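Example record

Each entry pairs one chain with its bound ligand, heme C.
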Amino acid sequence: MDRRWRRTATPLAVAGFLAGGLVLAGLAAAGAAAARSGPAIRAMQWVAPGADPARALGSSPTECLKPPPDPTLAHRVEVGRAAFRTPMVLGGQAGRAGISCETCHRAGRDNPDFLFPGVSGAPGTADVTSSLFSTHRGNGIDDPKPIPDLAGPKSALKVNQAPADRKLEPFIHGLITEEFDGPEPSPAVLDGLAAYVRALDPAACPAAPRRPLGVEMLMDDVRRALRAGRTQIARGDPATASVMVAAARTRLGLIDERFDTPALAASRRTLRAADRQLADAQAGLRTGRPDVAPALADWLRRSRPLEARLVGQAPRSLFDPARLIEAAKRRLPG
Ligand code: HEC
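Structure tokens for the complex follow.
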């Protein structure tokens, strides 16, 4: 245990508590009253003091993704895209705190508002040799570096992305298993993450640099992850399919936490029931139950009316910019 550990013991303990069993299950089990003593939105814990909450929490950079025309490669990118957004992939302290690749590289870009005590120096930096996240790589010195925009020009990036050179795969493998103490990724997850990073392309950046973080965007991510999961089931790869379902549940959790108000209790119950079905799908993948693929297909069909209902109620939730700013004022110092 080094000094950074102690310095961050409190926020991490809170984060660990909130992260228990992926937001939804954790909150249900621990009791809503206890959960309310934590931040309304978990990401508030790594937003720099003084950052504009409307920007940091209410919007996201736009993604610069150039989907490959080849459907097989395009599927690998989708697997990586979902894995990139799943704390389970990082595992360890970071995963338990709810941090995924996308926490630092938002939408595959950078994150000027990121500040995690003991890991960041200035906002937008992180020490990826921090012993806080790793028992392997901690070098005992504060060494925070700016989080690079992975959709920047490839020539500006340090790691060679040429597919034939296979440099990106071992780099990402090291990040997960050594830097973040994560579990060994399945071959399809590792391959997918590399394919996703390679498919980020400055030429594919939309005109608008940012977009509102809304229900539609998150539900779209949920569906993309589940579709990728179905394909992996068909390929006989339940381990990767399970990561895809976890990705979907993480995105649902981001909706759930913004619906934490008594007026929206009924919708929250529906969301939680939807999450339980996905948890059940994960259990089915572990035991090889044959009903998981049709269950996911059914879930995907029912996601449209669920989304319509949530979109209708979003103005009463923390997806509403004014409510979000109010909640952030109560939580964010400075
Ligand atoms: C805690 C924040 C954080 C998380 C989480 C994170 N990264 Fe990074 N990443 C960084 C920083 C900071 C650097 C720059 C390190 C340096 O310059 O030495 C970096 C560098 C990289 C690079 C190399 C960029 C280059 O210059 O070639 C890639 C690729 C990358 N990250 C992918 C990922 C993937 C994939 C994940 C999830 C498995 C991930 N990162 C998770 C902060 C993070």
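Residues 1-36 have pLDDT under 50 and may be disordered.
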